[in-house]
Specification:
The structure holds two protein chains of two kinds. Chain A is an alpha/beta fold. Chain B is an alpha/beta fold. The N and C termini of chain B lie far apart (58 Å). Classes of the chains: A alpha/beta, B alpha/beta.
Amino acid sequence: MQPFRIHKGKVAPLDRANVDTDQIIPKQFLKRIERTGFGEFLFYDWRRGKDGRPDASFTLNQPRYADASILVAGKNFGCGSSREHAVWALEDYGFRAVIAPSFADIFANNCVQNGILAVVLDEVQVREIMRRAAEAASYQLTIDLGQRRVQDDQGFSTSFQIEETTRHRLLNGLDDIGLTLLQESDIAAYEARHPVPAAAKQL
Amino acid sequence: MAEKRTLFEKIWDEHVVCLPADRLPLLYIDLHLVHEVTSPQAFDGLRVAKRKVRQPHRTVATVDHNVPTEPRGTPITDPIAARQIQALQINCKEFGVPLFDIDSPDQGIVHVIGPEMGITQPGMTIVCGDSHTSTHGAFGSLAFGIGTSEVEHVLATQCLPQRKPKTMLIHVSGKLGEGIGAKDLALGIIGQIGTDGATGHVIEYAGEAVRALSMEGRMTLCNMSIEAGARAGMVAPDDTTFAYMKGRRFAPQSADWDKAIAHWRTLPSDPGAHYDTVVEIDASKLAPFVTWGTNPGMVVPVSGRIPELSALGTEAERQSAARMLEYMGLKPGTSIEDISVDRVFIGSCTNSRLEDLRAAARVAKGHHVNGKVRAMVVPGSQVVKRLAEKEGLDKIFQDAGFEWRESGCSMCLGMNPDILQPGERCASTSNRNFEGRQGRGGRTHLVSPMMAAAAAIAGHFTDIRNWHFN
């Protein structure tokens, strides 16, 4: 997994709350059995008008946000379905971080698994970033995970909270399964105390 | 005196394998349910790392999301869906995972077949790469949805590093009125606390109205916990739970059964146990609900109207509601009963069990689906389908003009050919009314099975409390 330490990138504002994972990656793209190639389907329906042609008003279709790598959105981002494809699509598109007032639990977990940083800032700060990103062309933010800080070059600077275990994993790009397997003796001891039930063996 | 613990805390404590320094607690997973959509990349990950499935007998797979609901044996016309189903077959064979395949007499929606075969049991930790895994909490288990990386993690280690969630008690006092069921209770709760009202929490549902629910009703209620943002939903096991479980195929048998019951009786929360958040709901104040927007928190009683934008609290809420109404093709102030439907879907992991179909059939009996409406009934599993047919529900539905189909997730998320066309309006017993969920441009209104059946017949939403039952 790619470590996340300091990232500087262009910001795309998506001024909507409760963005669900059905919007981030619609169902018809979940049939692929690969982990890559989801970027072109990111926000598929929102990027297209009713006639199926690109909707120029949608944030990600605007040339000024073309190569954004930080997405800023409203509260409860990533709610709904557990589909990790949503994170794969964001990552494959080029996003390294999402900033929002809150995230749905499963989505936030999926981000960590893929080295994507979900930054929680309060509503006022999120609005301020959206305002700045809408006003200045090529508005950029720097996210420093080591220092837990988000800042731009024009005076905006704020710290953010993140759980220490999550921060450690992201900073070091650690393989979660490898870490769990370090506890092999604990797992084996647990399994010795809790054998597979007789009925389950009939499965 | 020992510390007073909640149902959740008892299960959590029992499943902590270890507390590694500087890392999250490692939780043991008793049961891992697997389906075709969120697992192929996980099995690939195992192959790349040369890992095995640690506990194949704690892993159960089925195909549900993609499967057509045409008669079995009809070729799958979507080659990508067929490839995904085939991938699961290959993966289960290679890694020794039991699979209830498309032609199995036990195939069905993963959240229907686990309980119905007695695989889901009180006190268990259960995960699945599917957010509606919360359904299984109805049995007093800790059950939650995970992403594909976590699916791989559980396949490889049978464990999951987990942040301990907060606890929320939703206490439902009083009785649900006639025609008002578990679905209405779930929608009423989400309408009250919002789609992120329980984020970071495990909900325990308790109180008179919850105790009175059947296991099917409890599953409907726990199923929708995720729509309030909860990590999981739970109901403490009781005699209703044990009566449902007894004799099921993979439930403990004979002496093991007595031992299991004795253990399960220790699980309910200790009186006076502390919850981080407490929500009170008065069941007697609930109505048959209909959603009007594009998230499950936008609920209104069937006797009500689409809210006026001026009644909403903030500018952001007004903008959001205006956008939803534009998508839904609705105007503020419209009476819910004046909204016509084009399609009706009775099914999904929320409402496709025998009790749901019985309730819908009771409404449909002796009536006929409105000429402008296409209505389909999709049983949750092959077992549900057979039991329903044994008591003649299929005949009631078909005589009334409903389509009677094979089991699967179907139009809940439209991964198979069952989808809405742009602009079509659907009364659906599923769990999500997100934009495009049932088909691009489709407009979904979430309702109970009775309300869905009544809408199919009337051609518009109608208050089930005034229904003429034959």
